[in-house]
Design goal:
This is Serine/threonine protein kinase. The protein is mostly beta strands. About 0% of the residues lie in helices and about 50% in strands. It is built from one helix and 21 strands. The chain is globular, with a radius of gyration of 27 Å.
């Protein structure tokens, strides 16, 4: 399992870059068995009636009800009140999320099912949402603050991307959210990159292509390539 890592506050001046670029609920009712008995009765002093057989009524327990896991969906949109972007991706009940506003980033992981997603991040950060109507509507809690968000479903190349690499002794980790522009003319993206634990300028990505930072080549991956290692 890949560590989520702490959320990072990035160096001032980092900005949005233009370009292309989960709780399971199980309810198991207990078995209920009702039993009644009738004692043998004596009809008279000189005649005894046969004993009455004990009657037992058994109620079959209802089968356990398990939350239906969400299969596959990608959501991305803006966080109300702070200008950042948020993305949530679900694969077979497993879910990952990412928030970034160009200054702060945070990764989340958890479960999705029965129309809800509940994710946890580093330092008590949480992301929860209700799924339906082609969107995820929920709340992000990070660094002692809370924001609401609405993230519509998106299709590639929009969505969530991540890169982790060890290149010539330097350890990189980065995340990006790619969204279509409101006017439908191209895409916008926001992201953050850390090199050896320190924030560095994040390059603009073209999904499916590597990027270069300080002479090192790093390959961003879409969510299908990394969700298992984070869940």
């Amino acid at each position: 399992m890949s560590r989520l890592g702490p959320f990072f506050t990035l160096a001032a001046g980092a900005a949005l870059a233009a370009g292309l670029g989960v709780a399971s609920v199980t309810s198991a009712p207990q078995a209920v068995t009702a039993t009644s008995s009738a004692d043998a009765a004596t009809a008279s002093t000189d005649a005894t009636s046969p004993p009455v057989a004990e009657a037992t009524t058994s109620v079959t327990p209802a089968p356990a009800k398990t939350a239906k896991a969400a299969a596959k969906a990608d959501y991305a949109g803006r966080v109300r009140g702070n200008g950042g972007l948020v993305a949530v991706s679900i694969r077979d009940g497993k879910a990952v999320g990412y928030f970034c506003d160009g200054k702060t980033e945070a990764w989340f992981a958890g479960k999705a099912g029965d129309g809800e997603v509940t994710l946890k991040g580093f330092g008590g950060a949480t992301l929860s949402a209700t799924l339906g109507g082609g969107k995820a509507t929920g709340e992000l809690a990070l660094g002692g603050k809370r924001w609401d968000f609405t993230a519509p479903t998106v299709k590639k190349p929009s969505g969530l991307y991540r890169a982790t690499a060890l290149v010539r002794g330097a350890r990189y980790r980065a995340g990006w959210i790619v969204l279509p522009r409101p006017d439908g003319n191209g895409f916008i993206q926001v992201g953050a990159m850390v090199k050896d634990g320190e924030p560095v300028p994040v390059p603009t990505i073209t999904p499916g292509s590597p990027v270069t930072i300080d002479g090192d080549t790093v390959a961003p991956k879409d969510v299908d390539a990394f969700i298992e290692e984070m869940s």
